[in-house]
Write a structure and sequence with these properties.
alpha/beta; 6 helices; 5 strands
Length: 153
């Protein structure tokens, strides 16, 4: 998952059996292709996030990694809350038979989360409404977002 820490927008959910540093690099490259790179990328200390390969790529993209302290999930409370919401509202309600089906269901849920689900932490707006300062639910078109920081998980 790739999330914008400022707007709370879920930028991408990638489904695979195993995620490694190459997978993270590909996912981030796709997300930052059009709007540009964020200043920081916050993540936990999983091997896929601390690998030399990924750190070198982040450096070339001018993205500074920020790692939470090991065993300190409260330093990344937003992602912990997101993971709980994602599990309750999406994964626990579906029986997924293939990677393709899982990706489709996750993409659908991501759209609902970003465009239609208000968040109390951002004044009861959707992430896209908050980022744009508009009533996005009535516009129904994707905006260009200024991504300051993304959170990986």
């Amino acid at each position: 998952m790739v999330l914008d820490e400022y707007s709370r927008e879920c930028l991408a959910i990638y489904v695979d059996r195993k995620i490694n540093s190459q997978s993270v690099k590909r996912a981030l490259a796709e997300v930052i292709e059009e709007p540009g790179a964020p200043t920081y990328a916050r993540s936990d200390n999983g091997p896929e996030f601390v690998s030399k390969n990924l750190r070198l790529w982040l450096s070339k993209q001018d993205i500074r990694p920020q790692y939470i302290e090991p065993g300190s999930p409260w330093q990344n409370g937003f992602i912990e809350s997101f993971n709980d919401t994602f599990r309750r509202e999406c994964l626990n309600r579906e029986q997924l038979w293939s990677r393709g089906e899982a990706q489709s269901v996750c993409n659908w849920w991501r759209e609902v989360y970003n465009y239609f689900r208000p968040h109390s932490s951002i004044n009861d707006k959707t992430p896209v409404e908050f980022a744009q300062g508009t009533d996005f639910a009535s516009l129904r078109q994707p905006p260009e977002l200024d991504r300051k920081m993304v959170i990986l998980n």
